[in-house]
């Protein structure tokens, strides 16, 4: 259907007293056989499906509001509304409803909503009391009028009657005329009565009364009446604020007079609701529901009208990105777009999608790229708010724009790099803006919201882009503040450790903590890309320099970063940690912490407890070989003794396997003798094959022992440099020809996974599993961590 007069939006009121958009379609009034009566039908304009089928009941109260709204209730707590695109269509359907109910279309309400209990009660009251008779609108009768208005608020039926009386006699405008007289005469008593009257009329909760009270010629007088609260010694000056302080700024001239009037009205009504009217009590909380709806529909209408005016929005973005635009003008333009986005939050999801797509098509992201790099703090703050609306709406849209940017030689102009620099350069001592931007960055790099269904390569492409062009910008402050830590080793033990390059001040520490939080998120969610970056930049070593920070929260952030890496149980990471001896700063921090029982102490012990419980063999061997002497005095927890126990168990298991291997090698000699004594000459082929297998077996074992010696020598070299533990006792080594050689010192576990793999592949005995189960039972019986009693 192309008839725009009948084009409507269907709304329902939810439990939170907010209107939910059920869709857009075209309305008609038709006799429906199944419902036995004339009904309102709304069919969706997208697919023709039925959005609404509602019989016009003779007893249902329909209300017409703001010339383009029809509101009614079909059942308890189920309110419906039709919002028409054109007034003519609303009038047409309203006449049909009134025709069915036999009412006058000139009225804005067709029925008086009366509860059954009240209906029965009113049947007993004389007929004259059904009408609320308003006293004459005179100064001397103001007290009587105020008493009448306040007395009807507790009765729904009397509120309806009073609302009808106020509308039918043009009473509101007469009251506001009396207000001007009282103010001229400085009649405080009369002004106090008028405050009670106007407040009571607002609490009648009638849209038709709001239309009169909030019209251009009445609204300022309504605000004036509300200034004279009897509870105040001096009246508030709300009108002075609205007319002089609050300025309406048109960044681009608005030619539509209806739109201008709607914007003024919405601002003033919002001011009345938020500032002037007191917070409703529990008994009054539903009195202003229609006022909330009035503001809601006004905002929807404003956004729709601005969105449809393509020339207006095009001009806004053209000036926003024009280099010739003055800074003050650009500030106003950015604030306008920010407020425009805030208004859009009242829209329903499908309308909000259309709104942000319109902004994207007009070039909101290139404009943000420009304004976020400006020096003006207000402009940057407003641009950050706009960016947050866009990221919240569609991270994929932002990612797509970023990847389509031309790859210029200067990475600084990229939108994400602009955002990162805003985070790094936040001048707020508490880093409020940096925290907000860090949250937005985390949303953008979160694989969970990358839509694999629509674009299967989005995750791979964007993360590759981010690590190539943006990661170095993010980590620059971290690397700069840990670059020359070697000098700090000259500081005396126990002295406050301050980086000589950049002072370890609180704001810098906070910024580094934010960056570490983001990097920790990357470790958890970006397995390949972050692993490559950490290895190439030796990032963990630089991060662990921050264990020396005087700010404990920063040291904990560094420790958390390492804990996430170890938590992955990735052997590549484990080898990197062992090769770099990266446990040393952690253990130094534990020893420097002394006997203090604090969060740092607990977090470090938890790290080692995790390694013990998960039985990460390579790390256990490294820790015990290099640091056990320094840790064995810590007895208030059993963690380090447990690590030593795990180490010894694994060493015993390895020895048992070697002994079995030696035994099997000797049995081969006996087989050879039997074979040589065998008189059967027909098995020459088998003899050759057996001899070849024997040679291969001996070669494999020889290579294994050579690698074993190399691992032992490497471990001994490491022991000479760090805080070494006692070297394990020597064990006899057997050569392939069964002749014992001189003893060599070996570590319990091979230092490289290559040797470990060769060891596992040599001989596999089924009874090993039984021994491992016995070991696990022994571990379960070990004592748990005890809280430290000393302070």
UniProtKB/TrEMBL annotation:
* InterPro entries in the cross-refs: ARM-type_fold, EVH1_PP4R3, P4R3-like_central_dom, PH-like_dom_sf, PP4R3-like
Q: Where is the PP4R3 EVH1-like domain?
A: 5-101
Checking Gene3D superfamilies in the record gives: Pleckstrin-homology domain (PH domain)/Phosphotyrosine-binding domain (PTB)
**Which keywords are on file for this protein?**
Coiled coil
In what ranges is there compositional bias, type Polar residues?
A: 734-745
Tell me which SUPFAM superfamilies the record gives: ARM repeat, PH domain-like
**Record's keyword annotation contains Coiled coil:** yes
Q: In its keyword annotation, does this UniProt entry include Coiled coil? A: yes
Recorded coiled-coil stretches: 644-671
Q: Name one GO molecular function term.
A: protein phosphatase activator activity
Region of interest (Disordered), ranges = 673-695, 714-745, 762-791
Where does the record place the Serine/threonine-protein phosphatase 4 regulatory subunit 3-like central domain?
144-649
Gene Ontology cellular component annotations, sorted alphabetically: nucleoplasm; protein phosphatase 4 complex
Biased composition, class Acidic residues, residue ranges:
673-686, 765-780
What are the BP-aspect GO terms? DNA damage response
**Bias regions of kind Low complexity — which residues?**
714-726
Describe the task this protein carries out: Regulatory subunit of serine/threonine-protein phosphatase 4.
Protein family membership: Belongs to the SMEK family.
State what protein this is by name. Serine/threonine-protein phosphatase 4 regulatory subunit 3
Gene source species: Sander lucioperca
From the broadest rank down, the organism's phylogenetic lineage runs: Eukaryota, Metazoa, Chordata, Craniata, Vertebrata
Gene coding for it? ppp4r3b
């Amino acid at each position: 259907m192309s008839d725009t007069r009948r084009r409507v939006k269907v709304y329902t009121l939810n439990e939170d007293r907010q209107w939910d958009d059920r869709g857009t379609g075209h309305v008609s009034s038709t006799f429906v056989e199944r419902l036995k009566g004339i009904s309102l039908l709304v069919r969706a304009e997208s697919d023709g499906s039925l959005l609404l089928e509602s019989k016009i009941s003779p007893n249902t109260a329909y209300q017409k509001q703001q010339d383009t709204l029809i509101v009614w209730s079909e059942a308890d707590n189920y309110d419906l509304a039709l919002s028409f695109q054109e007034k003519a269509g609303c009038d047409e359907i309203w006449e049909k409803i009134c025709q069915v109910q036999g009412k006058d279309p000139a009225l804005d309400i067709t029925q008086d909503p009366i509860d059954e209990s009240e209906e029965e009660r009113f049947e007993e009251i004389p007929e004259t009391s059904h009408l609320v008779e308003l006293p004459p609108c005179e100064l001397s009768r103001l007290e009587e009028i105020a008493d009448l208005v306040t007395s009807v608020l507790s009765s729904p039926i009397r509120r309806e009657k009073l609302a009808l009386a106020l509308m039918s006699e043009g009473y509101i405008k007469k009251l506001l005329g009396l207000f001007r007289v009282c103010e001229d005469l400085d009649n405080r008593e009369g002004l106090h009565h008028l405050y009670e009257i106007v407040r009571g009329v607002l609490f009648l909760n009638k849209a038709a009364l709001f239309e009169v009270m909030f019209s251009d010629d009445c609204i300022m007088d309504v605000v004036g009446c509300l200034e004279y609260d009897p509870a105040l010694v001096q009246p508030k000056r709300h009108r002075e604020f609205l007319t002089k302080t609050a300025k309406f700024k048109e960044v681009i001239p608005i030619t539509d007079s209806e739109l201008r009037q709607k914007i003024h009205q919405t601002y003033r009504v919002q001011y009345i609701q938020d500032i002037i009217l007191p917070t409703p009590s529990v008994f009054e909380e539903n009195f202003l529901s229609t006022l909330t709806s009035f503001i809601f529909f006004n905002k929807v209408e404003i956004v729709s009208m601005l969105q449809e005016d393509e020339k207006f929005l095009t001009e806004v973005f053209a000036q926003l990105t024009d280099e010739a635009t003055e800074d003050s003008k650009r500030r106003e333009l950015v604030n306008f777009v920010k407020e425009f986005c805030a208004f859009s939050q009242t829209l329903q999801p499908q309308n909000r999608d259309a709104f942000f797509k319109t902004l994207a098509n007009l070039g909101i992201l290139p404009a943000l790229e420009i304004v976020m790099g400006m020096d003006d703090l207000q402009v940057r703050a407003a641009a950050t708010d706009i960016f947050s609306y866009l990221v919240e709406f569609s991270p994929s849209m932002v990612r797509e724009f970023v990847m389509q940017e031309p790859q210029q030689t200067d990475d600084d102009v990229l939108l994400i790099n602009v955002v990162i620099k805003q985070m790094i350069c936040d001048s707020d001592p508490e880093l409020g803006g940096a925290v907000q931007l860090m949250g937005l960055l985390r949303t953008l790099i979160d694989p969970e919201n990358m839509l694999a269904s629509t674009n299967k390569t989005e995750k791979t492409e964007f993360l590759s882009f981010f690590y190539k062009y943006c990661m170095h910008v993010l980590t620059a402050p971290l690397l700069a503040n840990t670059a020359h830590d070697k000098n700090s080793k000259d500081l005396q033990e126990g002295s406050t450790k301050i980086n000589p390059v950049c002072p370890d001040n609180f704001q810098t520490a906070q910024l580094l903590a934010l960056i570490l939080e983001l990097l920790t998120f990357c470790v958890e969610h970006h397995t390949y890309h972050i692993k490559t970056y950490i290895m190439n930049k030796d990032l963990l070593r630089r991060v662990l320099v921050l264990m020396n920070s005087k700010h404990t929260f920063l040291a904990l952030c560094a420790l958390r970063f390492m804990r996430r890496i170890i938590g992955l149980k990735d052997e590549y990471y484990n080898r990197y940690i062992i090769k770099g001896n990266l446990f040393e700063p952690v253990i130094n921090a534990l020893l420097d912490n002394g006997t203090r029982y604090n969060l740092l102490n607990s977090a470090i012990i938890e790290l080692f407890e995790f390694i013990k419980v998960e039985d990460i063999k390579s790390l256990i061997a490294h820790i015990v070989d290099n640091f056990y002497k320094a840790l064995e005095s810590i007895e208030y927890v059993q963690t380090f003794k447990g690590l030593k126990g795990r180490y010894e168990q694994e060493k015993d298991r390895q020895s048992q396997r070697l002994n079995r291997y030696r035994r099997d090698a000797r049995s081969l000699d006996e087989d050879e003798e039997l074979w040589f004594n065998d008189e059967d000459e027909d098995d020459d082929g088998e003899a050759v094959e057996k001899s070849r297998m024997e040679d291969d077996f001996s070669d494999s074992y020889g290579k294994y022992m050579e690698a074993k010696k190399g691992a032992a020598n490497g471990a001994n070299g490491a022991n000479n440099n760090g805080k070494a533990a006692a070297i394990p006792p020597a064990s006899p080594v057997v050569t392939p020809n069964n002749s014992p050689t001189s003893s060599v010192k070996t570590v319990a576990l091979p230092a490289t996974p290559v040797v470990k793999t060769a060891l596992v592949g040599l001989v596999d005995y089924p009874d090993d599993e039984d021994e491992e189960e016995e070991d696990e039972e022994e571990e379960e019986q070990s004592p748990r961590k005890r809280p430290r009693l000393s302070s």
